[in-house]
Design brief:
With 217 residues, this protein is α+β, with helices and mostly antiparallel strands. The protein has nine helices and six strands. The protein has helices at 12-23, 40-44, 66-77, 87-102, 105-110, 125-144, 158-173, 179-190, 192-203; strands at residues 2-5, 29-32, 55-58, 61-64, 119-120, 215-216. The strands form two sheets. A four-stranded mixed sheet has the order 2-1-3-4, with helices on one face. Strands 5-6 form a two-stranded antiparallel ribbon. The mean pLDDT is 96.
Length: 217
């Protein structure tokens, strides 16, 4: 498999698909295209008509969109182990993953993913509402599944892939969340794949000015 991604410092959607492959120890090569550089879209057109990263190429199959890529990997390589085994948990995991996929625009706009440094931002009510909702999701799940493991549904799942960039955002901007959610942020940050991603992000030379919000601490 080949995964086409954007900048590791900024591309939250790329992280989701990349983390999925790494978390489940699946072999792949990565191709990084620097976001918004002059040849970004022309290069990306060689891989996908959607004009967005990430893109997964598996022999003659091409999949784009992070959640679609995670679903493809789950079905093709994991025997459906990427979602919780329990039907109710699986339905809930899909629901919160889709909620992340299609919502939380205040958070995304005001607190973009930026792995390089801790930064200070004063969120608006829209972003605070998103933070509170995510905090509530995490807290409820972590309390419910605390005896099964440190991830949202005990074992790591696609739901964790979808929320991993949020954990990085909460770390970068020091979001005020519950003790359980703070522990979850630390769980995500401690994963070897996330540590490798962040280390690579810090070595990138490109800067996207509009993504450098707030002030560095």
């Amino acid at each position: 498999m080949e995964l086409i991604i954007g900048n590791k410092n900024y591309s939250s959607w790329s992280l989701r698909a990349w983390f999925m492959l790494k978390a489940f120890d699946l072999p792949f090569t990565e191709t990084r295209l620097a976001l918004f550089e002059p040849d970004f879209y022309s290069s990306l057109a060689n891989y996908s008509p959607a004009g967005k990263v990430p893109v997964l190429i598996d022999n003659d199959i091409t999949v784009w969109d992070s959640l679609a890529i995670c679903e493809y990997i789950n079905e093709t390589y994991l025997s459906h182990k990427g979602w919780p085994a329990d039907v109710a948990d699986r339905a809930l995991a899909r629901a919160i993953s889709c909620e992340m996929h299609s919502g939380f625009f205040g958070l995304r706009h005001e607190l973009p993913m930026n792995c390089r440094a801790t930064r200070v931002v004063t969120p608006t009510d829209a972003a605070l509402k998103d933070i509170a909702r995510i905090d509530a999701i995490w807290t409820e799940l972590l309390q419910k599944n605390s005896g099964n493991g440190p991830w949202l549904f005990g074992n790591i799942s696609i739901a964790d892939m979808m929320y991993a960039p949020v954990a990085l955002r909460f770390h970068t901007y020091n979001a005020e969340v519950s003790k359980q959610s703070r522990a979850y942020v630390e769980t995500v940050l401690a994963h070897p794949a996330i540590q490798a991603w962040v280390a690579a992000a810090k070595l990138e030379a490109e800067t996207i000015t509009e993504e450098e919000v707030g002030e560095p601490v």
